[in-house]
Structures are given as C-alpha cells and as structure tokens.
From TrEMBL:
Residues 1-137 form the N-acetyltransferase domain. It comes from Lacrimispora celerecrescens. PROSITE patterns: GNAT. It holds the Pfam family Acetyltransf_1. GO terms for molecular function: acyltransferase activity, transferring groups other than amino-acyl groups. Keywords: Transferase. Gene3D superfamilies: 3.40.630.30. The lineage of its organism: Bacteria, Bacillati, Bacillota, Clostridia, Lachnospirales. This is Acetyltransferase. Transmembrane segments: none annotated.
Amino acid sequence: MNFEITDKIKEQDEKIIYQGLLEYNLARIEDKNPRDLGIYLQDETGEKVGGLIGNTHGNWLFVKYLWVREDQRGQKIGSALLKQAEETAKERGCRYAFLDTFSFQAPAFYEKHGYMSVFTLEEYPVTGKRYYFTKTL
C-alpha cells in the first residue's frame, strides 16, 4: 500500500471517500433523513440581504451559515433569521441547535440568543478562536 499526499483534491477522489463514509454511517445512524433548511431575506429588488443555511437531522438543527449584508446589520435581521430557523426546527421535531463561529464573527450574538459554548478551539487558525455552541430549543 502507498500513501498519496496532495493539496489538490480531485472531485472523483472526494466522492470515493464521501461515499465510503456515507455507506458506513447510513448503516448505523438512527435517522437517515436530514433536511436542508434555507431562510433568505430579500430587499424590494429581490436581492438577498441576509440568510441562514443549515439543516435539521433528528433532534438537531445545525446552522451552517448565517449572514447579513453589512449595510443591513444592526436591524435585528440576524436575530429574526435565527429565530425563524429555531421555530422551523421545532416544527420539524428538533430539540437542540448546534453551530460554530469564529472570534471575529459573532460569539456574543449567539450567547445573547441563549447559545452556550461547549468547546473552544484556541489559536485557530493561528491567533483566533473557533467557538462551538449548542442550545436547547
């Protein structure tokens, strides 16, 4: 056997690894039906000024991305997007939420919304921090 080490991951190689992991996981995980969740806010021209991307899976809401355009910040748009995601997740049967954020992003925002830090990755990627939060919905 030989190791192949690369900094250029080919799509077909990623698919092989992903499919192998997916097959293993699906044979063992209780809930095999994650559902995407996208919530978008558009201005009067139809341009997206904010949004949340994540998914629900079993008991959990996972918030992958939450973004508000810079000129729209401070108007509680992020709070409204997060609240809508939590409400939708509860409707889907979720009991908990999970997300991560960097020290230069929004840890205080999530704490204000009831999220608890469960782990902090120090010196990430070099001098910052990456926070992992959960919340009971």
